[in-house]
Amino acid sequence: MPHVDGIAINADDKLSSPDTTLRPQKSMRKRLVSLAAFVVAIGIVFCCCLRLASTIPTDSDGAGNILMAWAMLHGNVLLSGWRLTDVSFYLTELPEYMLITAVRGVRPDVVQIGAAITYTLCALGAALLAKGEATGREGALRAGLAIAIALAPLAGDQRTLLTNPDHTGTAVPVLLLLLLLERPALRTWMPVIALVIVSVAAVSDEITLLIAVAPLAGLWLLRSRLASAPADRRLERRLAAAACAAAVIGWAATQVIKAVGGWRTVAIPATFVGFGGLAGNVREAVAGLLTLFNVRFAGQSGWHTTLAVFHLVGLLLVVAAVVFGIRGIRAGDDRVASILTLAVVIDFAAFILFIPSPQQNYREIDVIVPLGAALAGRLLVGPLLRMRLRWALAVVLAACAVTFASGLTQATRPPANAGLGSWLVEHHLTSGIAEYWAADTLTADTGGAVQVLPVQLTGGRLTPNLWETDTRWFDPNTHDANFLILSPPSGSDPHPMTRPEAIAALGAPWRAYSYQRDVILVWRKNLLTQVSP
Fold it and tell me: What is the dihedral of CA 150, 393, 300, 492, to 10 degrees?
């Protein structure tokens, strides 16, 4: 019989060992706690985004998207007869709006809810992509820096990132694609996954060519001669082929929809600015980028100047991450970071080369905020920790938190035309016309109880304004309109139609009303017979 320290042990007995049955339980409990914290964090970000979105009244661009979603929800799936903007949002934001309108109906807050959902997904995707495979403190700091940079610019009157559907939402499928690209189990299926995701994005927004197709194809071209593993080259080649095929599929799908009578978009206002205009475009593009990140110094108070400095730090971190990313493309050690870098660089370069007046059209590069935030968190935290600059990270995170929190104190703003809409309902004026910025908003503000069609004055006569509009609304055989709203000058429309111009085009009205600064002219006839296509 063997002895251990004088103690007799039977041969059939086993030495006792720690109870390992507790380890899976502790691991499961830890995962549940992490999942709960993650869900709570998403809820907090969404509520904050919704609170900020509620400070921006819904305008006619957003209201038009509500009406499109409502039409799709009620059977017009291809949006037959509709003329959209230069972006369709057909498979990205519009399905989201359909779900919201199914619950809320035609209401102006559909835009605010949709904006909050979209940007929460952007911030979440940026945080997860920044974290990557890092764990512990570094993983948390990566995610924290990304989400801080993404959220900080929302403080203030940010009408690009957190309002009507715009290019911001196109970052969501791109971030999703890159998150899946990091899953080793999906490596074999990644070309197929890329084909599907990029095709969906390409149908919805042509900027997909700049932030997905060109980066995937460009990465393969740039690294095709590097001494990386053959499997890596083969995957990048297949991803590039899938992206190019998706671009063709996206273009073909839009042509088929158009051919069968579905929605149409207007041409993208892009043309080469010429070599003589490049210097001016660079200056305007930088000014647009500063506006996008909410960096405003002119005419600001001391506190707002401090906030602008914090915003500038976030932008500079994105710029630094792009520099790091460019240096890392040839190294080939981080495929996702390389794709993000190319997406940011290509989008900004195209902005300079092809967009006239980039300072006013900075919405064309709004995807740079979530994509740049993901890149900054992914590439900068590690070096900063290795340089023992934890304090610098702490200062940046605290500054971004203060900046974001300051925006939450802003007052919410009611729909711009809610009062006028109620007045129209009370006076039984339910079908009319107005210039663009007063039309769709009134329809949305009244829940569809009043339908106001957008028109414009062209050569002394009224014509339909075919921007986010169903052309069938203007058929006088099926629709009518008996009043015209004349709005005062505003930033959106500094030279609105005047009363003499309206009378010259439509004849003398039967009655005229005033509501605050608006004038409502009423006729005893169907005005659509005088609205020429």
Answer: -10
Q: Which domain holds residue 461?
A: 418-530
Percent of the chain with pLDDT over 90: 62
**Cα 229 to Cα 343: distance, rounded to the nearest angstrom:** 24
The C-alpha atoms of residue 317 and residue 149 are separated, in whole angstroms, by 9
pLDDT tens track for 279-330: 889 999 999 999 999 888 876 677 778 778 888 888 999 999 999 999 888 7
- The residues pairing with 82 across neighbouring beta strands, listed in sequence order, are 470
When computed from its CA atoms, the radius of gyration of the chain, rounded to whole angstroms, is 28
Same domain, 385 and 474: no
Query: Which H or E element spans position 519?
Result: strand 518-522
Q: Is residue 24 part of a domain?
A: no
- Reduced to 3 states (helix: H, G, I; strand: E, B; else coil), residue 500 is helix
43: number of Cβ within 10 Å: 11
Q: Are residues 364 and 462 in the same domain?
A: no
**β-strand pairing of 469-470 with 7-8:** unpaired
Same domain, 222 and 347: yes
Q: What is the pLDDT of residue 103?
A: 95
Phi, then psi, of 82 in degrees rounded to 5: -85, 140
Taking 80 as the threshold, does the pLDDT of residue 137 lie above it? yes
Residue in the block written with tokens 């380890």: 23
* E runs forming strands in 420-497: 431-435, 451-458, 461-464, 469-470, 483-486
Residue with tokens 């974290």: 131
Q: What is the pLDDT of residues 111-129, one digit of tens each?
A: 999 999 999 999 999 999 9
User: Is the same domain home to 121 and 200?
Assistant: yes
End-to-end CA distance of the chain: 105
- Is there a domain that residue 105 lies in? yes
Domain count, the chain: 2
Residue 224: how many CB atoms within 10 A of its CB? 12
CA distance linking residue 106 with residue 109, whole number of Å:
9
Give exposure, 512-530, as e/b (b: 16+ Cβ within 10 Å).
ebeeeebbbbbbeeebbeb
Could you tell me if 152 and 404 are in contact, meaning their C-beta atoms sit under 8 angstroms apart? yes
CA of residue 476 relative to chain centroid, distance: 37
391 lies in the same domain as 442: no
Same domain for 494 and 525, yes or no, is yes
pLDDT at 146 over 90: yes
Which residue has tokens 């009319």?
A: 432
Same domain, 193 and 255: yes
Q: Considering the entire predicted model, what is its pTM?
A: 0.90
- Of 254, 252, 244, 240, nearest to 91 by C-alpha is 254
Report yes or no on 187 lying in a domain. Answer: yes
- The pLDDT of 74-81, averaged and rounded, is 96
Q: How far apart are CA 309 and CA 403, in angstroms?
A: 10
Q: What tokens appear for 94 in the block?
A: 């519009």
Co-location of 293 and 392 in the same domain: yes
